Amino acid sequence: MAEETLRAFDAVVARANPPVWVVTVVAGEQRAGCLVGFASQVSIEPRQFLVGLSTANHTFDIAGGAKYLAVHLLDGADTALAQLFGGETGTDLDKFDHCEWTPGPHGLPILTGAAGWFTGAIIERIEFGDHVGHLLTPTAASAPPEDRSGLHYRSVAEIEPGHEAG
After folding, report:
1. Cross-strand partners of 38
2. pTM
3. What is the tens place of the pLDDT at every residue in 95-113?
4. Side-chain half-sphere of 42: how many Cα atoms within 13 Å?
């Protein structure tokens, strides 16, 4: 594909300014979490949400042995959690030692600084190039207050990833 087309595609997607999320997971004694830009509700009834995890990411490795994920909506001004979960890698650092969290449903780490969150059962995994989609059905949730809005791509675009792209 032509480089010009790739640059134009990237510009279109970036201009859409999609929301970003922090996904956390636990499998056995291991826990992990990462900043995710590829995620969206994909069905109204039944409610389903798709999270794309990079195959190069430590969280992806832990999620392979998990049955559930927690998906966190960060407040629009909360770039500190985004920096921690997007700019560090769990292979080098226990991110949960550097933020406030509590054990939640299914033993998942729930970030207390998140505006809102939900947990979901992984009902299917689908390969998408350098990411694997984890199709979730919600199992528990905590709604954000009306005065909090989500964090979007433009607010985190300058974060250097904690790992190489897949």
Report:
1. none
2. 0.92
3. 999 999 999 999 999 999 9
4. 14
User: What topology is assigned to 22-156 in CATH?
Assistant: Pnp Oxidase; Chain A (2.30.110)
Q: Which of 136, 93, 112 is nearest to 85 (CA)?
A: 93
Cβ-based neighbours of 139, under 8 Å, separated by 6 or more: 68, 105, 106, 118, 119, 120, 121
Domain ranges of the chain: 22-156
The owner of tokens 């054990």 is 103
CA 130, 67, 83, 148 dihedral sign is: positive
Residue with tokens 């059905």: 137
Closest among 69, 68, 75 to 113, alpha carbons compared: 75
Residues sharing a CB contact under 8 Å with residue 3, sequence separation 6 or more, in sequence order: none
Please tell me whether residue 155 adopts helix, strand or coil conformation.
Answer: helix
Neighbours of 84 (CB within 10 A): 21
